[in-house]
Amino acid sequence: MSDKILITPYFGKLPNYFPFWINRLKVNTNLDFLIVTDQDLSEYDTHSNNIKIVKMTLIELRGLIEDVVGEKVKLNTAYKINDYRALFGLVFAKYVGGYSYIGTLDTDVLLGITSHFLDSN
Fold first, then answer.
1. Closest C-alpha among 3, 19, 12 to residue 81
2. Residue partners of 54: CB distance under 8 A and separation at least 6
3. 115 or 78: which carries more pLDDT confidence?
4. pLDDT band at residue 55, thresholds of 50, 70 and 90?
5. Contact, 121 vs 78, CB < 8 A?
6. Cα angle 37, 35, 28; round to 5
7. Whose CA is closest to 50, among 94, 18, 8?
């Protein structure tokens, strides 16, 4: 387990390059990844010690965000998730507790070998 985790919420149809993106996560064993999605990922090879998958609906995610901010929020489309990125450490606290560094990652970012510039602990 790394002390760094990157969170990727993704709701809706997955991009055609998703298997390649998953492969880029798997080779970066110095990082952990949390994928929060409403999609069934069983057809993809997501089995890796550094990948955690949490399945939830957009409505469930909205509820988690509302719990953190203490009021109703507008989250009717997946695109609006970006408005709440700064809260991800709190919203996903039950999944990211114990990590020293929490960040976000989009599926349109293909990682190189991050161990060349990030320590593994």
1. 12
2. 34, 35, 36, 37, 92, 95
3. 78
4. very high
5. no
6. 155
7. 8
Closest CA to 32 of 110, 106, 108, 102: 102
- Token pair for 27: 């080779």
**Amino acid sitting at position 66:** E
SS3 70: coil
Query: Which amino acid does the sequence have at 51?
Result: I
Q: Are 92 and 8 in contact (CB under 8 A)?
A: no
pTM: 0.93
Task: Write the burial class of residue 11 (CB in 10 Å: 0-12 exposed, 13-18 middle, 19+ buried).
Answer: middle
How many helices (H) and strands (E) would you count in the chain? 4, 4
